[in-house]
Amino acid sequence: MTKKTAAPEISPRPFAYRNRKLLCDGADLSSLADAHGTPLYVYSAQQISHRFQLFEAAFASRPHTICYAVKANSSLAILRLLAKQGAGFDIVSGGELERVRKAHKPALKKVVFSGVGKQVWEIDAALQADILLFNVESEAELHLLAARAEALGRRARFALRVNPDVFAETHPYISTGLSEHKFGIDIKAARAIYRKAAKYKWLDPAGVSVHIGSQIRKVDPFAAALARVTALIADLRKDGHDIRYVDAGGGLGIDYGTTAFHPAQQVEKYAAALTRGLANESAHLLLEPGRFIVAQAGALLTRVLVVKKNGSKTFVITDAGMNDLIRPALYHAHHEIIPVRQPAGKSTITADIVGPVCESGDFFARDRVISAVKPGDLVLLLDAGAYGMSLTSNYNSRPRPAELLIEGAQAKLIRRRETMRDLLAPEIPG
Ligand SMILES: *Cc1c(COP(=O)(O)O)cnc(C)c1O
Predict the structure, then answer these.
(1) Ligand 1 pocket mutation pick from 169, 209, 214 by most atoms within 8 angstroms of CB
(2) What is the pLDDT of residues 140-197, one digit of tens each?
(3) Residue 233 falls within a domain, yes or no?
(4) I need a labelling partner for 119 at 20 to 30 A (CA). Which of 2, 107, 217, 318 fits?
């Protein structure tokens, strides 16, 4: 068996100090803040490509397609970067389908379409684009897909997204693989539904898919889920279905803290777990990683507006708010926060780092020990490349931040800062 070896390991985070200045790869963050303003998302192209290549290398020995989960970070430039390296895409809406079309049209044929509530226009658009696979999440959706496929005269390849009833330890908001969750179809009911589906001339039961949740750090649940899927595939073949794809979903987690983290080893472990789960199954493997590819490649650069004391507490108020990065407010997620100018001394403060939005939930960290900062200083919120920009909003009528993609020492503006005109454009004051 020939195995492609991964590129030499690089640091899991592209942000590091040189001469007391914080750089993203070769680009100086302080200069970028001066040139582009804050809050500002900054991503390393090298890190994104490296993470994608780790998956390519780890699964090189079997037929596979890495379908990057667009919702983790849906910036066109990032989709294009990945598409050019051969990525497919996991989408969850008609909007994401349009993003793939715009980023790299040939990648449409490597799209898998997930989601529990697909609308007719979204199904039609995906049929017309001739995507690779519909991940069907209910019997009702299967009937709708059959009807639309017939109406448009296009055969639809589909997989049932089964719910394997496997527990994966993660935040309850991002766990999806238990029967109590809204996702997927009970694996015990799947065989009968495939049988029904086979009667539809316009449906092609081409695969089985599973996705048990997000930010999963232990790989055993992936093996357990896939073992159940593999057993189902064997039954489906006995029933005469031509199953060619097995979609293992996404969900591989990263380390948001400060313990040593080795992405290459983690992907190797993940691949070994999936291989265990697959046993002798040799169907084309689809993977849907999102967070693992982009989270640590990105960070949110923000400037301190005010440092204030209320009683015994210190608050550091930044120009980024929960509308720019909602993970701490939504999931109590941890993000490391570091100063852009490396402090000479060891002077620290214990503070809440908060945004300017009028909500008590607008915080990035509570009672955090950080190096002392003053108004005007820049700080960086690490590991914000996934579920950062893609979850931004205009709450408090705040324009969304700009985004930069760093290539070596060069910074490419991939999304300009929103303007007041952008903010008001869709509205009709009467
Ligand atoms: C969100 C999602 C993913 C990506 O999850 P990550 O944790 O970012 O890897 C993959 N597949 C489906 C169906 C999803 O909903």
Answers:
(1) 214
(2) 999 999 999 999 999 999 999 999 988 777 766 666 666 667 788 999 999 999 999 9
(3) yes
(4) 107
